[in-house]
Amino acid sequence: LSHLFMNTDNPQYEPVQAEDYLLKALQLQIQLHTRQEESANHKSLSELYEQMQEWEKSLQHLKRFNELQAELLSEETKYKAELLDQQRKIDVIEREKLLQIARYQEQERMLHSILPSTIADRILDGEQQIVDLAKDISFFFSDIMDFTSMTSSMSPEVLIQDLNRLFTEFDRIAKNHGIEKIKTIGDSYMAVCGVPQKREDHAVRIAEFALEILTVSQTFSIGTYPVHLRIGLHAGDAIAGIIGEDKYSYDLWGDSVNIASRMENTGEKGKIRVTEYFKQLLEEQPHITFTSRGEIDIKGKGLMKTYFMHQSNNAWSVVPSFPKCR
Questions:
Q1: CB count, 10 Å around CB of 199?
Q2: Residue 288: which of 279, 298, 275 has the closest Cα?
Q3: Cα–Cα distance between 153 and 147 in angstroms, integer?
Q4: Dihedral, CA of residue 195, residue 198, residue 200 and residue 205, to nearest 10
Q5: Alpha-carbon distance 234 to 227, whole Å?
Q6: Partners of residue 42 on adjacent β-strands
Q7: Closest-CA residue to 288 (of 300, 278, 298)
Q8: What pLDDT digit, counting tens, does each position of 142-167 carry?
Q9: ∠ CA 278-283-289 to the nearest 5 degrees?
Q10: Of 59, 135, 213, 216, whose CA is between 20 and 30 Å from 34?
């Protein structure tokens, strides 16, 4: 209403009436703390008093208008600064979350690279102690004959490079056969089948794995020396679990593990030595044959019959007893 009455082009131009409405509006704006509207009202009053040639009142309201504009600008600047500060804090939190996610994903990747997948998942799910009784599983042990003497004069770089190539190939073959690598110690390689994933054909898988490993290893060398393996196999029960807190290690313990290790370290170059029990598990496999090697004394077990395992001459015509894992 005030703006209608203060419009000089309006036939009903009435500055006194406009002043009355503006002052009433100003009182309401002050009571309601609507400072933006109050500032605009002071500007209108300044312009009205200028029309009425009341210069002192015009100057007072113009001054108050400028004061309010400065205060509003300061508050807006402060508000924007607070918003900016809040956004920075949010950005820091978001970056920290992304870093935590990245760290967790890296930990997950590392765990899955050094542990069986199912065991890594159990740790990531918060399981504190992992101990399983593993029944009916097969064990593989191998080492390189004369490894210490053949590498005594070899450069460390060549040794590690060639050994890494060999064991990387072992890992690839193990994956194809559904075999779980447990660990390497020096030139020794330990693997198992039937744990943590149960497999009814564990003995066949580990036997075919061993035969392929023996064949493939003959194409490798450490430095200038050809690789000659001795391999030991056995089957039975064991305790499987995780040891360590910061550096996890999945391992197996028990008599069956020790017997399999004994088959390896009493073996011969280029041979796969197995126990009589392991041989019995494979008697229906026409592509695998055995040669008696006599008895050996196993600590705590006494004399045990042992055999050398071979791939029969007609192995290539035999249909595999299980599909290879892809």
A1: 20
A2: 279
A3: 11
A4: -40
A5: 23
A6: none
A7: 278
A8: 999 999 888 888 899 999 999 999 99
A9: 90
A10: 59
In single-letter form, the type of residue at position 75 comes to E
**Which single residue is written with the structure tokens 């605009």?**
40
Tokens of 307: 């055999």
Question: Which tokens hold the place of 199?
Answer: 């497999």
Contact 194, 138 (CB under 8 A): yes
* Residue length of the chain: 326
What is the pLDDT confidence band of residue 269, given thresholds at 50, 70 and 90?
very high
What are the beta bridge partners of residue 99? Answer: none
Question: What angle, rounded to 10 degrees, do the helices at 35-51 and 15-32 form?
Answer: 160
pTM of this structure: 0.66
**Quick one: which of 294, 227, 243 has its CA closest to 266?**
294
Residue 89's Cα: distance from chain center in Å? 28
253: which DSSP letter?
Answer: E
* Cα–Cα distance measured from residue 6 to residue 19, given in angstroms and rounded to the nearest whole number: 8
Cβ(312)–Cβ(286) below 8 Å: yes
Amino acid letter, 213: I
Spatial separation of the C-alpha atoms in residues 210 and 207, rounded to whole Å: 5
Average pLDDT, the chain: 86
- Can you tell me the distance from the alpha carbon of 154 to that of 140, in angstroms, rounded to the nearest whole number? 28
Q: Are 190 and 183 in contact (CB under 8 A)?
A: yes
* Of the candidates 229, 236, 265, 266, the residue with the CA atom closest to the CA atom of residue 252: 236
